[in-house]
Design brief:
With 624 residues, the protein is mostly beta strands. Among the domains are: 2-42 and 514-621, Jelly Rolls (Sandwich); 92-190, Elongation Factor Tu (Ef-tu), domain 3, CATH 2.40.30. It has 3 helices and 51 strands. The strands form 13 sheets. Strands 2, 3, 42, 43, 46, 47 and 49 form a 7-stranded mixed sheet that branches. The model is unreliable at 202-221 and 524-528 (pLDDT under 50).
Length: 624
């Protein structure tokens, strides 16, 4: 007779597929809405132009004049997007005097050696030359006077670039290229680039989380560590900070063709931070705040120090009786890992504790209260604010702070933490989708960049899992859709931004969502728990399809075994696959097993779908 297969919402991976029973056991690119599995929304390119590097920081904002911007921090560059166009605003750390940079070419070779005393560059840095003259042959002035990526470091006083024309094509020097570029050449070096990998024994992962200049504590230093940016809006302007690096300011009124500058370059700047872990702007009182920062009079980062600027003044960091600048040294832990802003307070995580930071006004400006011990966050970006609550991921589980810190029961805990790449924890991050009441943590697995995710639906209290290569994600309230950045580290110069929850397809291709149940069996007093085999001869599907329903195409796969430990790939296992359309009334099958697994996969494009209650015609049966 027909039997309704009622499967509990959420993914349950805390035990075996057999013990999961009438629960969902596995899925990809699915969510639950009102208890029903549903394929997530699709994605399309937000900007057609690729950007340089891997982006791990996004921030959107709207100015008083209603201009919409997106800040994009990659390991190689920092961009501002406006109206679909990307503008490179990466700060310049050094502009040399005229004639300090000199070129040398070799006949028949595109490699140019650049001599520059104490250039301070690392492999992959970017430099722009101006006012150079032709080397006398194929290497003309126009080829020299442009931006170059540094191809190799020879020593502290020289490096190489690969000559190109203004279209980017390689240019080979000839025998006439004997000049050095002239005495008027100026070189502008952008801030050092970062890497795509977190190195736990060096930089800000060593000792006391990178105390010392430029992420000291190890030989690699700031420019050789995973690049993580923090960003904050200051009025119409932008403040940003590469972790363990400087703090920079972009003045929106100067236009998108203008690069950001160090805080010290602002008019009236005094005692501005030179190195910090994270920057933030307080939402209610407009102080610029640095977490893990150098004290006044020192260039060495103090990993427990919090400092803030004068109110509504990003340049003044010297505490006086007439301003509100100040600082506090936290009392527990060895380093600040990250901070999250809620509507009424800022939550600060050290490596061993959690603190609440609240604006109190003069004379102390901020009050700090410890709210939890022996708990922290997995990485600087694995905490996310949802209203006045903060959801966060630690090394042993998931938590919520909503006045107190509470551990979240998780039905996929072992699955997530057994698969995460523990050598690259700082790549993990959290994001929020308030439209679907979801908090999602994206994380790397062994041998990949960020490739997997785990989602908690806090309205329905269910968990899902999946795969998606996104290195950064933001809800982007000023935009039509959430925006995410791809995580291609093999060819890092071809990463893109995507609109998400946009349509039903993966940029024109199939999303490929699927969901699979635990092992369902006939049970009850009359048949025992799995005592009898069952015979299945048809099922009645139950789908809701949105979009182009006449293109809806699903594979319904019913797999059967006789024992929990039996693999579905065993010769004795049985499986039946049926292609189901949106208008399929029923599908005939023939299958005999003690336990079955129901798996549903989508094919095709142009539609979304969710699953209701399947009914299967099953009855007890013998082995023959």
């Amino acid at each position: 007779m027909l039997r309704k297969i009622e499967i509990q919402p959420g993914i349950n991976r805390e035990s075996t597929q057999y013990s999961a029973g009438y629960s969902w056991f596995d899925c990809d690119k699915m969510r639950f809405r009102k208890g029903r599995p549903e394929q997530i929304g699709g994605w399309t390119k937000y900007v057609e132009t690729a950007y340089l590097g891997v982006c791990r920081s996004l921030l959107d904002w709207t100015t008083a004049a209603s201009t919409k911007y997106l800040g994009i921090g990659t390991n190689l560059k920092f961009y501002v997007e406006q109206g679909g166009a990307l503008s490179d605003i990466t700060p310049v750390r050094l502009t040399t005097a005229t004639g300090d940079a000199r070129f040398a070419a070799a006949n028949g070779d595109a490699t140019l050696t650049v001599a520059e005393t104490a250039h301070g560059a690392v492999l992959g840095d970017w430099v722009t030359f101006t006012s150079a003259v032709s080397l006398g042959g194929a290497i003309v002035a126009a080829a020299l006077n442009q931006e170059y990526e540094i191809a190799s470091i020879i020593d502290s006083d020289s490096y190489t670039i690969e000559a190109k024309d203004t279209a980017g094509a390689e240019v080979l020097a000839n025998a006439s290229d004997t000049s050095d570029g002239g005495a008027a050449t100026v070189a502008a070096y952008q801030i050092n680039t970062g890497t795509n990998n977190y190195i736990a024994s060096t930089g800000y992962g060593a000792g006391i989380w990178g105390s010392g200049t430029w992420g000291g504590a190890g030989s690699l230093g700031f420019s050789s560590q995973l690049r993580l940016y923090s960003q904050a809006v200051f009025g119409d302007d932008l403040v940003f900070n590469p972790r363990s690096g400087g703090v920079y300011f972009w003045d929106e009124s100067d236009g998108i063709a203008t690069r950001a500058v160090d805080l010290a370059a602002l008019p009236g700047a005094t005692d501005t931070p030179t190195v910090a872990y994270q920057v933030m702007v307080s939402p209610t009182d407009k102080h610029v705040i640095c977490f893990g920062v150098n004290p006044i009079g020192s260039a060495t980062l103090n990993p427990l120090l919090v400092r803030w600027s004068d109110q509504e003044n990003a340049a003044d960091w010297t505490p006086t009786v007439t301003n509100s600048s100040g600082g506090t040294l936290l009392s527990s832990g060895s380093a600040i890992i990250g901070a999250v802003r809620t509507r009424h307070e800022i939550i600060v995580f050290t490596d061993t504790s959690v603190h609440a930071m609240r604006f109190s006004g003069a004379p102390f400006i901020y009050q700090f209260s410890p709210i939890a011990e022996n708990v922290s966050i997995l990485s600087p970006n694995t905490a996310i604010a949802v209203g006045d609550s903060v959801y966060f991921m630690d090394a042993d589980g998931f938590y919520i702070y909503n006045g107190a810190v509470t551990r979240l029961p998780c039905s996929v805990l072992e699955y997530v933490f057994s698969g995460i790449d523990k050598s690259n924890l700082f790549k993990a991050y959290a994001t929020n989708n308030s439209d679907d009441s979801e908090v999602t943590w994206h994380y790397p697995t062994e041998g990949t960049d960020v490739s997997n995710y785990v989602t908690f639906n806090y309205a329905e209290n269910v968990w899902t899992i999946g795969t998606l290569d996104r290195a950064a994600w933001i809800q982007a309230t000023s935009k039509a859709f959430p925006i995410a950045a791809t995580a291609d580290i093999v060819t890092p110069k071809v990463n893109y931004l995507y609109n998400h929850e946009a349509g039903y397809d993966a940029d024109g291709a199939e999303i490929g969502g699927y969901i699979e149940s635990g092992q369902v069996e006939i049970s009850g007093a009359e048949v025992g728990d799995g005592e009898s085999l069952m015979f299945l001869d048809r099922f009645i599907p139950d789908f809701k399809v949105t979009g182009t329903a006449n293109n809806a195409d699903f594979d319904v796969i019913i797999k059967g075994v006789q024992y929990p430990q039996q693999l579905f790939s065993d010769p004795d296992a049985v499986s039946y696959a049926s292609t189901v359309l949106a208008n399929t009334k029923q599908s005939d099958i023939r299958l005999r097993a003690r336990e079955i697994v129901l798996r549903i996969e989508s094919n095709g494009i142009g539609y979304g779908w969710n699953v209701g209650d399947f009914r299967i015609d099953m009855r007890t049966d013998g082995k023959r």
